[in-house]
């Protein structure tokens, strides 16, 4: 069971680090992990993904967000810097056997953690 934490209310320009635990250690070699953001206006979007080959952050968040993982503690992170009002949403930890930018194709989802950015 994937469990996120770290969401909070912050002001524009602030930083947060989201965490996700609950994925098995065996996934580190053959599963893709990622973060998805959902808001009422834009639905679910994949923000960043990471697998054994590396990591990628989607364009709207590139340069401000970074995804990483600690295999020893099986913790996935999303470092969020220079936050903007547009970053507001529910952030989900996701996992699947294949990395994809299509949010509908991910098999495993956490319960989400809310990030609210105010002006």
In a few lines, what is going on in this structure?
The protein has 119 residues and is mostly beta strands.
How much of the sequence lies in strands comes to: over 45%
Average of pLDDT:
95
The major β-sheet equals:
7 strands, mixed
Please state the structural category: mainly beta
Radius of gyration: 13 Å
Q: Considering DSSP H and I runs of 4 or more, what fraction of the residues is helical? A: under 10%
Terminal Cα span: 34 Å
**What is the overall silhouette?**
globular
Number of beta-strand segments: 11
Fold blueprint:
Layout: E1 3-5, E2 9-11, E3 16-21, E4 32-39, E5 43-51, E6 54-57, E7 65-70, E8 75-80, E9 89-96, E10 108-109, E11 113-118
Parallel strand pairs: 2-11
Antiparallel strand pairs: 1-3, 3-8, 4-5, 4-9, 5-6, 7-8, 9-10, 9-11
Describe this structure in words.
With 119 residues, this protein is mainly beta. The protein has strands spanning 3-5, 9-11, 16-21, 32-39, 43-51, 54-57, 65-70, 75-80, 89-96, 108-109, 113-118. Strands 2, 4, 5, 6, 9, 10 and 11 form a 7-stranded mixed sheet that branches. Strand 7 and strand 8 (75-80) form a beta hairpin. The radius of gyration is 13 Å and the shape is globular. It starts with a strand and ends with a strand.
What characteristics describe this protein?
119 residues; mainly beta; 11 strands; 0% helix
């Amino acid at each position: 069971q994937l469990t996120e934490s770290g969401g909070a209310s912050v002001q524009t320009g602030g930083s947060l680090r989201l965490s996700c635990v609950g994925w098995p250690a065996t996934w580190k070699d053959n599963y893709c992990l990622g973060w998805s953001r959902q808001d009422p206006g834009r639905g679910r979007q994949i923000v960043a993904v990471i697998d054994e080959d590396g990591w990628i952050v989607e364009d709207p968040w590139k340069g401000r967000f970074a995804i990483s993982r600690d295999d020893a503690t099986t913790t996935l992170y999303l470092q969020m810097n220079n936050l903007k009002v547009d970053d507001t949403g529910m952030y989900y930890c996701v996992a699947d056997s294949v990395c994809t930018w299509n949010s509908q194709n991910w098999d495993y989802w956490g319960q989400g953690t809310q990030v609210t950015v105010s002006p």
